[in-house]
Amino acid sequence: MSLKNHMKNTLCILMAGGKGERLYPLTKASAKPSVRFGGIYRIVDFTLSNCLNSDIRRIYVLTQYRSLSLDRHVRLGWSVFNHELGEFIECVPPQQRNVDRWYRGTADSIYQNIYILQRERPERVLILSGDHVYKMNYNDMLAFHMESNAELTVAGVEVPRSEATAFGVIGCDDRYRITTWEEKPANPKPVPGKDDVSFVSMGVYIFNTDALVKSVIADAKSSSSAHDFGKDVVPGMLRSYRVFVHNFKEANNEAGRYWRDIGTLDAYWAANMDFCSDNPQCNLYDETWPIRTYQVQVPPAKVVTRDRPVQVAEGPEGIHDSVISGGCVVAGALVRRSVLSHNVRIDEGATVEESVLLDGVHVGAGARVRRAILDQDVAVPAGFTIGHDPETDRSRFSISPGGVVIVPRGINLA
Amino acid sequence: MKQILVVDDEIHICELYQSELEDEGYAVTLAHSGKEALDAVERNPPDLIVLDIQMPGMDGIETLEKILGKDKGIPVILNTAYSHYKEDFTTWGADSYVVKSSDTSKLKEEVKRLLGE
Predict the structure, then answer these.
(1) Residues of chain B with pLDDT under 50
(2) pTM of the predicted model, to two decimals?
(3) Do the Cβ atoms of A118 and B65 come within 8 Å?
(4) How far apart are the CA of B89 and the nearest CA of chain A, in angstroms?
(5) CB burial class (10 A; 0-12, 13-18, 19+) of residue A374?
(6) Residues of A contacting chain B (CB within 8 angstroms)
(7) Residue ranges for chain A with pLDDT beneath 50
């Protein structure tokens, strides 16, 4: 059977039911996967684009908390599948069909939807989450899964050992069969032959359906489990199942290993900053791997300069190394290393540096903003300062462990 | 004495299992619908449940799911005249699957095994 047919017999389930507490207050009104990201996108667009570009056409999105904006985004931006051809993307909130509770964890979200697997009867299930940024051709992973005769394949990426402490660290033999799995270890095991990197789980799994069903049922019956794939199910399968790790390589870029877990506000900020560099690791302009999203109708972005350039404290007006979305108007201001979503206005003499400004933000004349995330519709009054005086900032806003100032929506700064 | 709950809408099946299992030294209680079974599990949790699938109203699969949702760790044997349910993922939460037969030796064997005897 061809790889294409194997993929046809693979159902995709995207788990989007987390509370996203570590991304609060950006998740105050929307589920983490639908948080605005990279100017015009939502975080989930990267994973869904991977599906589309990998010819995956049967997708269930398991939603739970604050799902309205995610439902709407999937409906408006991703209704590109043809139901008559057996293709679909469907958002599924908890049905409480077999239990009277919310999802206890990622594994429980699959357990509670076993009836979907029974209805579809796929041979394999590709399980994804909606809060990672990477470009991956899932066909490569499926081919590896088939060749290895695996019952479960986990995608793994090599990251510096110092960063591996936040993830599930994988140990494997020379055929990539997983031998050890440590969840968030203090001292991550290095990849053999490479002392400074560790293999971590990307939260991307291909399960043979029978192995998945048996494992999540066993997990649901266990009283000591946190009902999480990474913490409980996968480590518990190593002994009795054929569990392999697929060594991630970026789609269209043999040397690329860009993968980011947008788990924290600092990670969110840093991944946005990545797009500002001259040659970002995650290229949004690759026509062979388009990143799809839904965009509202907005006028073009506009930059206004004066006859005599405006001087601000940090230098002359201008836009440098920044992502500017449609509808923005930057008038006589300095913008450096920043990401501006739709309809942002920056007035004369203002400075915005190393910041993420979401839709509808207004920065008044002469205001100075540095290393900050400004949530939707925040209005910064003229002359106001954010990110220059930690003490004042702390009295007004929350500040991430990495020192990024978070300005939530609905705040009145006037 | 280990207590077994037999759930089946057909009275003669209930009576057959009751007499066969009592002969083996178990205490047997009966329920004739999914709802009665759930009430029995709540009121007086048995050590094991023998559960029919095709019943009017709440069927055995839904009953099984609700029993598992109570997290009481009671082993369940699905007992049906049809073998095709065995392939149905929604039945895999059961601990055993026995196809109905006038010969109850397989059922008794599974009861013993699941009760660790």
Answers:
(1) none
(2) 0.94
(3) no
(4) 6
(5) buried
(6) 97-101, 114-115, 117-118, 209, 213-214, 217, 220-221, 223
(7) none
